[in-house]
Design goal:
alpha/beta; 499 residues; 15% strand; Rossmann fold; 22 helices; single chain; six-stranded mixed β-sheet
């Protein structure tokens, strides 16, 4: 049975999975959601024996129903291969009373690899299925990790160009170096004088600009997205929650059907939404613990039912979470509004016009699966230091935010018995200065970021990832910087479209 996708803002817009992946964003700015969440009906004993690739096919085939078995298995085989430095793809590590799901073993050492390794293959397959002749322009905003993972995935992929906007002063030095050294004739990286929300808003504006779409079409182009607003990004993220649960069972850590908690550091809400979808499929998840940094708009939302972006934008040591407009939350709002596109559209209209909206009490009642909290910069650094001193395990700043929030959750709820997965979203090597400063409290201020890489290797005993080694002396190939209101002009210039 074919699963169709509909827009969160227009009940009349329905498309196939491949069409949703191609479009990225629905007409009128809505996001595509499946008409229903399929059931995870495979016995856990069978799941426990599956490889990551087999689990990926099982889960993704339920959502991407217009892809043939051959097409989907080909995409999966091309994505989850030797570019990952561990055969497990997403290993679990026990440390400090929790299980860390390490999602940073791909080519760019961040969790975005888990979905962005496969998205180019899904997109090209979708283009062929839908007889697309235009060149596809991947237009993406990044808060640090999506950009590099998308660039690596789409570099020199025939029939595509990829344009990435990032906040010039809002990513770590290593994140920026990863992006600006990216090779590929079809890759374009632009820093903006502004924050991620401005970059994301600029991208969304271009997606919903009908006159720009016509000009693009006349020139032989069409937009698609590599952000988690694209359902082709979101579906592959469901896979690792199913895989992790099955591995806990296979390793004898949990009983069959035993419920677990999942803690996710989140800014744009995509990663934790994937966990929510896994729960809706039937995965035995108790609490979804939503961890924020000092940009705690999501914590405030879960506490009050009011989403309010009207606040100071904080630059933190966990820059991939420095976000005040959490795009994927719209998919959850749509669901708790009874899948009512009109009602959801009103909330999103209020967010655009007033910067805030408030959900109803009935909607708030449907958020009981979630717990929200946040970690300050000081708490994040302390978590890195204490975890290292107590266990020898080193986390990056984003993972430390999640670990700190999980600690608060246990203190508030006394829920000490439910086994918990903490999603580890990036290698500590991406944020060496913040990590080393946390452990040694600024002892190494005199060192460069790459000298700190070597020191981190010494104390952690973890081999320096190839992704870091290859950018040490790499030539910077992208130096374009613009104002936030110049983004469209830059895109037109890249594509040789007249103003």
């Amino acid at each position: 049975m074919e699963l169709l996708y509909k827009s969160t803002r227009n009940a009349d817009e329905k498309v196939t999975a491949s069409q949703a992946i191609l479009k990225g964003l629905a007409d009128g700015g809505g996001l595509f959601v499946p008409e229903e969440i399929p059931s995870l009906d495979t016995d856990l004993d069978d799941l426990a024996k599956m490889t990551y690739q087999e689990t990926a096919y099982l889960v993704m085939s339920k959502f991407l129903t217009d892809f043939t078995e051959e097409e989907l298995k080909s995409c999966i085989a091309s994505a989850y291969d030797s570019k990952f430095d561990t055969e497990e793809i997403a290993p679990l590590v026990s440390a400090g009373g929790a299980y860390y799901l390490e999602l940073f073993h791909g080519a760019t050492i961040a969790f975005k690899d888990m979905a962005l390794s496969i998205l180019p293959h899904l997109l090209i397959t979708a283009a062929k299925k839908n007889h697309v002749t235009n060149e596809i322009v991947i237009l993406t905003a990044t808060s640090g990790d999506t950009g590099k993972a998308a660039l690596a995935g789409f570099a020199d992929v025939e029939g595509t160009k990829i344009i990435v906007f990032y906040p010039k002063h809002g990513v770590s030095p290593i994140q920026e170096k990863q992006m600006v050294t990216q090779k590929g004739e079809n890759t374009f990286v632009i820093g903006i004088h502004g924050n991620f929300d401005q970059a994301q808003s600029g991208v969304k504006k271009m997606f919903s600009d009908a006159s720009l779409a016509k000009a693009m079409g006349d020139a032989g182009y069409q937009f698609s997205s590599a952000n988690s607003i694209n359902i082709g990004r979101l579906v592959p993220q469901i896979v690792y929650y199913v895989y992790a649960y099955a591995k806990l069972y296979a390793n004898g850590e949990i009983a069959k059907g035993e419920r677990i908690n999942i803690t996710v550091p989140t800014g744009n809400f995509g990663n934790i939404l994937a966990a929510f979808y896994a729960k809706q499929m039937g995965l035995p998840i108790a609490k979804l613990i939503c961890a924020s940094n000092e940009n705690k708009v999501l914590y405030d939302f879960f506490s009050t039912g009011i989403y309010d972006k009207n606040r100071e934008f904080m630059l933190t040591s966990s820059p991939s979470m420095d976000i005040l407009i959490s795009s994927n939350l719209e998919r959850l709002i749509y669901r708790i509004a009874g899948n009512d596109a009109k009602k959801n559209a009103e909330f999103m209209k209020a967010l655009i016009s007033d910067g805030r909206y408030e959900i109803t009490e009935a909607m708030k009642d449907q958020l009981k699966d979630f717990y929200g909290n946040y970690a300050t910069e000081e708490e994040t650094a302390r978590m890195i230091r204490e975890l290292y001193e107590e266990t020898g395990y080193v986390t990056d700043t984003h993972t430390a935010v999640a670990a700190g929030v999980y600690r608060k959750y246990k203190e508030e709820t006394a829920d000490n018995d439910v086994k918990t997965i903490i999603v580890s979203t990036a290698s500590p090597y991406k944020f060496t200065r913040s990590v080393m400063n946390a452990i040694y409290q600024n002892k190494y201020d005199f060192m460069t970021d790459f000298e700190l890489v070597d020191e981190l290797s010494k104390i952690s005993g973890v081999e320096i990832p190839q992704a870091i080694e290859e950018i040490r002396s790499a030539k910077e190939l992208h130096d374009c910087v613009c104002e936030a209101d110049e983004m469209e002009s830059i895109v037109k210039k890249i594509l040789n479209i007249e103003e």
